[in-house]
Amino acid sequence: MLATPRACIDGLRRHLEDLRTDSYEGAVGPEREARYRAAFDLLSIAATGVLSDINELLLRGTGDILVQPPGPDGHGGLIGSWMLSWPALREARNRMTGKALPPVTISAVWPAGFVHPHLVVGGTVNPRAESLVAWPMQVASAEEAAQQESLLWALATAEVHDRIYQSSWRVVSGRD
User: Is residue 23 within 8 Å of 125, Cβ to Cβ?
Assistant: First the structure.
C-alpha cells in the first residue's frame, strides 16, 4: 500500500501536533522511546523489502542486508538503520577522498533534543544544521509502515545513486 497525498499530509499534521505537545504519537516522556522502537520494528518489514528488491533487481542477489536496531548515536540520541552492501561496493573507493564507501543506508534517527525521530539517508544528523533533509517518522501501525514504502524506495535509490557518484557506474554493474 503506497502513501496517498492525504496520508502524507496527515503525517505532517501529526508531526506538527507532536511539536506542539512535546510528544511522539501521543507518548510523552520515556514512553516516546518505546514508541520509536515500535515504529522502527514496523518499518523494518518495508525497509528490508525495498533493500531486498534492489539487491535482486540491480545487484543480481550479491548483496547483504543488515538491520541495526536502535541504539545510542554517540551524541546523546538514538539511531537505527537498514543497510545494503555488496562485494563491489566493499571494494570501491570514493573517487574524491580515496576512502572506503559506506553501505547504502536508510536511518531512523532521533537526535538529542528532538521531540521525535526522522527518516534520513545515511546516518547521523547534525541537529544544529541550518537545514535538515529528513522525513518525520510518523508510524504507529503496520498499515502506516507499509505506506512509507515509496519514501523508502526514494531514500534507498538516492543512496545507490550516491555510491555511483562517489565511485563509478561499475560499483553496481559487476562488469568492467
Answer: no
Query: What per-residue confidence (pLDDT) applies to 176?
Result: 40
Cα–Cα nearest to 120, from 131, 130, 134: 134
- Answering whether pTM is above 0.85, one says yes
Cα–Cα distance measured from residue 153 to residue 103, given in angstroms and rounded to the nearest whole number: 15
**pLDDT < 70: residue spans in the chain:** 1-3, 174-176
Domain that includes residue 144, residue range: 5-173
Q: What is the 3-state composition of the chain as percent helix, strand, coil, each rounded to the nearest 5?
A: 45, 20, 35
Which residue, 57, 56, 59, is CA-closest to 86? Answer: 59
pLDDT per residue as tens digits for the range 128-152: 777 778 889 999 999 999 999 999 9
What are 136's three cell numbers?
518525520
Kindly state the percentage of the chain with pLDDT values over 70: 97
Do residues 101 and 85 lie in contact, with contact meaning Cβ atoms separated by under 8 Å? Answer: no
How far is residue 124's CA from residue 81's CA, in Å, rounded to a whole number?
10
Please report the DSSP string for 75-95 in residue order. SSSEEEEEEEE-HHHHH-B-T
Q: Could you give the number of structural domains in the chain?
A: 1
